[in-house]
Design goal:
With 241 residues, this protein is α+β, with helices and mostly antiparallel strands. The protein has 3 domains: 51 residues; 91 residues, L1 transposable element, RRM domain (Alpha-Beta Plaits, 2-Layer Sandwich); 42 residues, no CATH class. The chain is built from 5 helices and 7 strands, in the order αβααββαβαβββ. A hairpin with a 2-residue loop joins strand 5 and strand 6.
């Protein structure tokens, strides 16, 4: 009936509904409390993990710093070692140059003759006699002059004697002026199978061989050029590599 007052039963029914809703709310609040507790535990765990990560990061930074210092030290050591190696290489090259120079000085009075006939079982005295005859016949040096020349040693180049092929003849003059005067007569051998040239250490010979094409090129261009020891001269000026 419209406008009728609610009965006790109606009120009790509404209270039951309200009670159910309150129970539902309480249940949800309990769930929220549990979530808060779990969040608190999770937050604590995160904080612990973060502190551990910070400690680990500090340890890593320290190790990296030590490695950087070690690397810097290694770089310095490497530079020092490299410098020492360079010094040793310069010393080695200097010693080699000194040794080559000493060899050259020991050969200063030497001349090598090629194409000089060789007899079987040639003795040192025979070798010297053959050389003196060669100086007179091939290089056109007067007999009196040849007779006055003194040799410290005259010998054939090392190796087995081969039939039909004469080994080079190496002469060590007692005086440089005699060696120089004989060397000046090299043009007398032009057109023959003989030759005469100065003796140098293998290192110097290799350098001179490399300079020959440049010397020939300079001469083809009308320039005066020659090789002295291990240096090429063009129009009186040394040519550096």
């Amino acid at each position: 009936m419209a406008g009728a007052q609610p009965t006790l039963q109606d009120v009790m029914s509404e209270l039951g509904v309200i009670s159910g809703q309150l129970t539902s709310v309480e249940n949800k609040l309990q769930c929220l409390d549990k979530m808060d507790q779990r969040m608190a535990v999770l937050e604590k765990d995160m904080q612990t993990l973060w502190l551990a990560l910070e400690d680990r990061g500090k340890t890593v930074d320290e190790r990296v710093s030590k490695l950087e210092h070690s690397a810097e030290g290694a770089d310095i050591a490497a530079v020092h070692i490299s410098s020492r190696i360079d010094d040793r290489e310069r010393e080695r090259d200097s010693l080699r140059e000194d040794l080559t120079y000493m060899k050259s000085q020991s050969m200063r009075n030497n001349l090598i003759f090629t194409g000089v006939p060789e007899v079987e079982s040639e003795s040192p005295d025979t070798t010297e006699s053959i050389l003196r005859k060669h100086l007179t016949d091939a290089l056109k040096i007067e007999r009196e002059t040849v007779a006055s020349i003194k040799f410290e040693k005259v010998h054939r180049s090392p190796g087995e004697q081969t039939r039909g092929r004469a080994r080079s003849l190496i002469a060590k003059f007692a005086f440089f002026k005699d060696k120089k005067s004989v060397r000046r007569e090299w043009k007398q051998l032009t057109g023959t199978n003989c030759n005469v040239f100065e003796q140098f250490p293998p290192e110097v010979v290799a350098k001179r061989r490399k300079l020959l094409p440049k010397m020939k090129e300079a001469r083809s261009n009308g320039k005066r050029s020659w090789i002295s020891y291990d240096t090429l001269y063009v129009d009186g000026r040394p040519v550096r590599d």
